[in-house]
Amino acid sequence: MALFNIHKEHEGCLWAIWKVEETTEQLLAMLPHKEKYRLDIEQFASPGRKLEWLAVRVLLYTVLKEEKEIRYRPDGKPYLADGSMSISISHTRGYAAIITDKPGKNIGIDIEQYGERVRKISSKFMRPDEIAGTYNGTDTWGLLLHWSAKEALFKCLNSEEVDFREHLQIKPFPIEERGVFQATEYRTSERQSYPVHYRLYPDFVLTFICQAPTPKYN
Length: 218
What we know:
- By secondary structure, this protein is α+β, with helices and mostly antiparallel strands.
- It contains 5 helices and 11 strands.
- β1 (3-10) and β2 form a beta hairpin.
């Protein structure tokens, strides 16, 4: 098995990462009713997409020790068929991540592989009043954290047509190996501010939100 990391943030909130080192057949063998899952992955043409989809289910099954069916709302956000808890999922090349919490909680998780490509798209999510910050002599980590945090925050919002540059703002923060910073959304009338937890790993960043926002941002 390739359970990379598992962490209980607080009562009810748990996040975990799976390092995808298996083949499709090996992942299927880790799941109950593997023939059902074999049929499910036929919807994907890409072998990589099949691995990501299966890795998320294997990770959830490994963490919870019981089988749960993941479904998707029209906007693409996942939920558990039995409603037993809230869930958010993410994947990047070679890794899958999940976060779960009590039913009804707005949570979000995102994982992004380290790479310079983020510079090419930074104009789509970085605001003029945001500072990427540097870590190990480069601002690539800062850009990735901004991008990842806004993905996680988007997953917390029950809103469509969210513009990452216009509607989401990251407050300046010093980048360390792990920490917490504030992100504010301007998409809703509440304009709530969320604490974003983050971790830096050698080849990817992880951000997640599992705490309630402040009632009102001023």
